[in-house]
């Protein structure tokens, strides 16, 4: 056995490792000489060297982020507007970002007024959401974390549908069972959001594997924050996706914070993107505040997945401009000046607007009119949703199982009898 | 193979006795998975080491028959197996996922409890992962100590949205596993590994299922009702023999499905016998016997002639050298019978 390992294809292996090892290390003080190589199970060929080779990630170059538009909304040198992003498409995407932004403004305030129980905004990440959403196909299956309402909005989820979910009313597709912002739509291939972080990651691999073996022309796209990437399910997912060659796009939103935890307390490597290599997954990092770049990168990633038959990891670098949620005051752990800096100098909406103004595709008047109109639309949806009642109380017992087992039927009857006995006590609307 | 299952179904439809084949429990489970995969082209079997046939031989030859896309090894990561299975099922495909030992299902607890169990409910029935079954060997095996012996069914019985199923012999194993795979809800299916080779029976060939949620009256009796499941049924059979010699008639019931469990069958039996003993390998405190005892006490208060007794594992981790002393064996159950009839 050992003999076979030593002799089999050794010259080729040495040639390959010399190419790989010696060429890039011209600047390195760890110049090692390859003294042969060994084959290990799994087909790995490992070169042997005659000095200790410490591979320190800190000595590696930072993975660069792709950018098309600079912070003034100008094309960077060599930058081109992605194919397919015509004036009409760009203006539509911009309108989507404004709609999301107005929805966030209105519902954030509605929570502050106690009209809904909870809310989470996507301030600062609108470019990431609309840029990626536009680059995938409607048949692609979305697995979201919770700060991706823009993707669902792009797919056609209406303001009424958002509002119904937020008010957990009788119009809510989720039947009023989950906290606000836990959206889902079967029709729009958007799997229902759940609170436990990163659980959707291995699920996305499983769904994508299903598409692959069924030879369906679709992928799964799975969004998650840089904090969620610390969960064990991140590791599980990328390793499963790689070993089963799943057509899944892992899309990390690195916005600098997981609630109060800055990235320096979250990881010490080069962000999330640097982890792809360890799993054998190609990675692309992108400026998440540049809608053009996010669109182009997501499109490229999808192509790589479909042609290469393997997963791709994208990391979008951005900044969480808003609080983590309505239960959070982010100024307790970060400077107001920091938030202002990002809002003023690196906001995805402003960057696209500057570009559109430059092109003559947009005007300040249209901008203000759009914002006003969308605000009105959201307020109307809010008013409609607020006027609707919650689902019938006994629907609480539906859908635990496909069928309703006897013990749950009995408990349903028990609840109905009890409420019938004390109707006044249970007369409130439940919010 | 397909012909065999069709022939089997036909035999079932006719009045003639169905053809059977001698199988042990692992071959019966293997046969169930083969039928499931023949009848459902979306069904896939995966987990740690299943490709070469599994460490307990349950998946032997399936890869050869159905190909590596449908029978494959996963990386060694239980939370990944569970999450992957949920995702696969969420797009309408049948996932048969193996956890190598029930002792190692806990890394997947979050995926099973927070995700699989609530998948349908939380989405308002827009999404579900009902075509999902987790198989896991469970229970004492003579020398398994802490991490190759556990019986974790009670943890899952506390989770609305799941079904929990445990067979006692090869016939039940095949029929219940096929029913679990086809049930439109996520099922956790625990296999008594002590019986993989030890339990042998004539098993109907081809396609058949045994309904979930129904207990099975294994022996009729008049004095005491004995309830158990899985490997414990063998112990309780022995207990029944000992009791019979002592002149006590036991009604022995295999619960088969832990969640949702068959209250009616137990209730009817206890109304008749007036006495109930529930026995399981798992520790007593928080064990599923507590749920049965409490429910039957509520329903049969006036029929009970003695307190309901639980004969279970002790509230310790599962020991190695002292397994014999730890287990709720036939003699301990017989002692309980003596106490309950003399109460």
From TrEMBL, chain A:
GO terms for cellular component: mitochondrial matrix. It catalyses: N(6)-[(R)-lipoyl]-L-lysyl-[protein] + 3-methyl-2-oxobutanoate + H(+) = N(6)-[(R)-S(8)-2-methylpropanoyldihydrolipoyl]-L-lysyl-[protein] + CO2. Keywords: Metal-binding, Mitochondrion, Oxidoreductase, Potassium, Thiamine pyrophosphate, Transit peptide. Pfam families: E1_dh. It is found in: Mitochondrion matrix. GO terms for biological process: branched-chain amino acid catabolic process. The keyword Isomerase does not apply. One of its GO terms (molecular function) is branched-chain 2-oxo acid dehydrogenase activity. Its EC number is 1.2.4.4. The keyword Oxidoreductase applies. Its cofactor is thiamine diphosphate. Residues 97-393 form the Dehydrogenase E1 component domain. It is an enzyme of class 1 (oxidoreductase). Belongs to the BCKDHA family. The branched-chain alpha-keto dehydrogenase complex catalyzes the overall conversion of alpha-keto acids to acyl-CoA and CO(2). It contains multiple copies of three enzymatic components: branched-chain alpha-keto acid decarboxylase (E1), lipoamide acyltransferase (E2) and lipoamide dehydrogenase (E3). This is 2-oxoisovalerate dehydrogenase subunit alpha. It comes from Aphanomyces invadans.
From TrEMBL, chain B:
Keywords: Mitochondrion, Oxidoreductase, Transit peptide. It catalyses: N(6)-[(R)-lipoyl]-L-lysyl-[protein] + 3-methyl-2-oxobutanoate + H(+) = N(6)-[(R)-S(8)-2-methylpropanoyldihydrolipoyl]-L-lysyl-[protein] + CO2. It is found in: Mitochondrion matrix. Residues 23-198 form the Transketolase-like pyrimidine-binding domain. Its EC number is 1.2.4.4. GO terms for cellular component: mitochondrial matrix. InterPro entries: THDP-binding, Transketo_C/PFOR_II, Transketolase-like_Pyr-bd, Transketolase_C. The keyword Lipoprotein does not apply. It is an enzyme of class 1 (oxidoreductase). The keyword Transport does not apply. GO terms for biological process: branched-chain amino acid catabolic process; response to nutrient. SMART domains: Transket_pyr (SM00861). Pfam families: Transket_pyr (PF02779), Transketolase_C (PF02780). GO terms for molecular function: branched-chain 2-oxo acid dehydrogenase activity. CDD domains: TPP_PYR_E1-PDHc-beta_like (cd07036). Its cofactor is thiamine diphosphate. PANTHER family: 2-OXOISOVALERATE DEHYDROGENASE SUBUNIT BETA, MITOCHONDRIAL, 2-OXOISOVALERATE DEHYDROGENASE SUBUNIT BETA-RELATED. This is 3-methyl-2-oxobutanoate dehydrogenase (2-methylpropanoyl-transferring). It comes from Aphanomyces invadans.
């Amino acid at each position: 056995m050992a003999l076979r390992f030593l002799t089999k294809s050794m010259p080729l292996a040495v040639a390959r490792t010399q190419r790989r090892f010696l060429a890039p290390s011209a600047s390195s003080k760890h110049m090692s000489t390859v003294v042969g190589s060994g084959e290990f199970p799994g087909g790995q060929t490992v070169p042997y060297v005659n000095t200790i080779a410490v591979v320190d990630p800190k000595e590696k170059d930072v993975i660069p982020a792709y950018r098309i538009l600079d912070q003034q909304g100008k094309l960077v040198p060599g930058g081109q507007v992605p194919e397919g992003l015509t004036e009409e498409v760009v203006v539509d995407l911009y309108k989507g970002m404004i709609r999301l932004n107005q929805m966030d403004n209105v519902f954030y305030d509605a929570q502050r007024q106690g009209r809904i129980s909870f809310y989470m905004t996507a301030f600062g990440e609108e470019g990431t959401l609309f840029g990626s959403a536009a680059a995938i196909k409607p048949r692609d299956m979305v697995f979201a974390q919770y700060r991706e309402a823009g993707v669902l909005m792009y797919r056609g989820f209406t303001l009424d549908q958002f509002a119904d979910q937020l008010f957990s009313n009788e119009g809510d597709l989720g039947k009023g069972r989950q906290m606000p912002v836990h959206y889902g739509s079967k029709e729009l291939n958007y799997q229902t959001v759940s609170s436990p972080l990163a659980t959707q990651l291995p699920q996305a691999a499983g769904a994508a594997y299903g598409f692959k073996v069924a030879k369906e022309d679709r992928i799964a796209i799975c969004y998650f924050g840089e904090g969620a990437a610390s969960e064990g399910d991140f590791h599980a997912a990328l390793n499963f996706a790689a070993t089963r060659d799943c057509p899944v796009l892992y899309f990390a939103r690195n916005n600098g914070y997981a609630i109060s935890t800055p990235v320096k307390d979250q990881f010490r490597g080069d962000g999330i993107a640097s982890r792809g290599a360890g799993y054998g997954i190609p990675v692309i990092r992108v400026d998440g505040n540049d809608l053009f770049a996010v669109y182009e990168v997501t499109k490229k990633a999808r192509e790589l997945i479909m042609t290469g038959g393997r997963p791709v990891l994208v990391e979008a670098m951005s900044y969480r401009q808003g609080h983590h949620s309505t239960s959070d005051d982010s100024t307790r752990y970060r400077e107001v000046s920091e938030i202002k800096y990002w809002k003023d100098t690196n906001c995805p909406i402003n960057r696209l607007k500057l570009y559109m103004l430059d092109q003559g595709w947009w005007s300040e008047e249209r901008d203000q009119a759009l914002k006003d109109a969308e605000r009105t639309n959201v307020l109307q949806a809010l008013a409609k949703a607020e006027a609707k009642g919650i689902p019938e109380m006994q629907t609480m017992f539906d859908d635990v199982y496909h069928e309703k087992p006897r013990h749950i039927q009995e408990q349903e009857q028990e609840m109905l009898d009890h409420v019938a006995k004390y109707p006044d006590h249970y007369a409130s609307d439940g919010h | 193979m397909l012909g065999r299952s069709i022939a089997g179904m036909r035999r079932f439809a006719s009045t003639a006795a169905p053809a059977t084949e001698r199988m042990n429990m692992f071959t019966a489970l293997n046969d169930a998975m083969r039928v499931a995969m023949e009848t459902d082209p979306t069904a896939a079997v995966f987990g740690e080491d299943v490709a070469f046939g599994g460490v307990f031989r349950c998946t032997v030859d399936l890869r050869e028959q159905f190909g590596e896309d449908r029978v494959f090894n996963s990386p060694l990561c239980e939370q990944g197996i569970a999450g992957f299975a949920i995702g696969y099922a969420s797009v309408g495909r049948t996932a048969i996922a193996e956890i190598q030992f029930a002792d190692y299902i806990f890394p997947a607890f979050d995926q099973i409890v927070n995700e699989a169990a609530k998948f349908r409910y939380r989405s308002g029935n827009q999404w579900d992962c009902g075509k999902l079954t987790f198989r896991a060997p469970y229970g004492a095996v003579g020398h398994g100590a802490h991490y190759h012996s556990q019986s974790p069914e009670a943890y899952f019985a506390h989770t609305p949205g799941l079904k929990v199923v445990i067979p006692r012999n090869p016939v039940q194993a095949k029929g219940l596993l096929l029913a679990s795979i086809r049930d439109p809800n996520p099922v956790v299916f625990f296999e008594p590994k002590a019986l993989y080779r030890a339990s042998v029976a004539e098993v109907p060939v081809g396609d058949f299922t045994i309904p979930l949620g129904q207990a099975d009256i294994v022996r009729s009796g008049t004095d005491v009702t004995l309830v158990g499941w899985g490997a414990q049924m063998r112990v309780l059979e022995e207990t029944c023999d000992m009791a019979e010699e002592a002149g006590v008639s036991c009604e022995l019931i295999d619960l088969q499905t832990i969640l949702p469990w068959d209250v009616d069958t137990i209730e009817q039996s206890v109304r008749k016998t007036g006495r109930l003993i529930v026995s399981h390998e798992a520790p007593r405190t928080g064990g599923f016997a507590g749920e049965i005892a409490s429910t039957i006490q509520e329903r049969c208060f006036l029929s009970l002639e003695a307190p309901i007794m639980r004969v279970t594992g002790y509230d310790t981790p599962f020991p190695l050298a002292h397994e014999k002393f730890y287990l709720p064996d036939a003699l301990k159950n017989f002692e309980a019978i003596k106490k309950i009839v003399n109460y």
